[in-house]
# Entry
Amino acid sequence: MAPAMEMSRESVTEYTEKMRGRYARMTGRKARGALLDEYTEVTGHERKYAIKVLGGKRRVAGTGRRAGRKRSFGPAEEKALKTLWLAMEQPCGKRMRDMLPLWVEHLGGIHQTTRDSLLKMSPATIDRRLAGYKATACGHRIRPPRSENSIKAKVEIRAESWDVSEPGWTEMDTVAHCGGDMGGDFVWTLTGVDIATGWTEVRPVWNRGQYATLQGVEAIRTAMPFDLLGIDSDNGGEFLNHHLYRWARDEGIKQTRSRPYRKNDQAHVEQKNYTHVRQLLGYDRLAHHELIEPLERLLSLWSLWKNLYCVTMEQTSKRREGSRQIRTHAKRNRTPAQRLLESPHLDVQNRQRLEQQLATGNPIEMKKQIESLLEEVWARAGELEKTPDAPHGRELASEGSPALRSVQPSEARKPTTDQVAMVSR
# Structure
């Protein structure tokens, strides 16, 4: 092939437009082949690429023009968007779009036009501009412990989908901070999520005993701005025990449980175990009772921040078409606090308190407090790890029957003569 002629970019574009018209009018294979020979010789394009250009399926190479409309957002918007995204705990674009009106006014150091541009961003644009910063994490799960069969017979199984509009019906679960080793004593996190509004509270408990778990449930009940009507849990021994069962019965709280080995029965709280616990504390081992107090302050503030300023998506319907299950979600995502304020079931006192918190609170400053408390927890954990003789609170595990025997007994007792005689009868 002879070398291509020296042509300017404008000349190649004009020449291509004329050749496209001739190429479209020709129907014979031989005639089109001759036209392609001429076009590739003049422009220097590869033959397969020339076919696509003359067919209108490709732009002429070297135009330097980006496809689509011009960018609407510049570096200032992208920098502010990244700052808010990190402060919001890295939500998806659909959730962040509805969180921006609550956050953008509290971000300092940016111009008002930048704020206005951020509020105009679509979820797809947010995801696209943040794609280069996103990362994923992975982890492992811990097997649940055994529970008492006598309590299982008293607590009914709830296997149907939730259909409630009144706040107070909750799912609860525990998360182990064992570092992959279930032996010994360590901190657990108790998670409670309200089905109607998504209001979520997390609290630390020591060793997941009956008494410690009940204290955590009472703390969650006190923090929720509505009455606790029901507790739905898995079949773990920290929930299915006489201690918690009697308390719930005396307080008029309905207790139900999921089907064994069916984690989807508790899909709401299983999701919160990751977004509200693992994303904050990770998978490290927290094996010191001294961490309970700083964790209590951290998780209380963390729960309030999540409930006031972080939106959650809400499924409105679900249907099956063949092998596909199609879900639809609300067009406008809301925070749990916004759902509560729009609910007719919230009393006047709690409504005024929520409105006051939203009017005077600052999500960015609150996030800085959370980061400070988190650093305090890890600093304290590091100090305790350097002190091998420090008590880990094993004596506290005896308060109430532990839900899980994590170590083998040191010795086995022989049966007495009377016991042998009773068995042999």
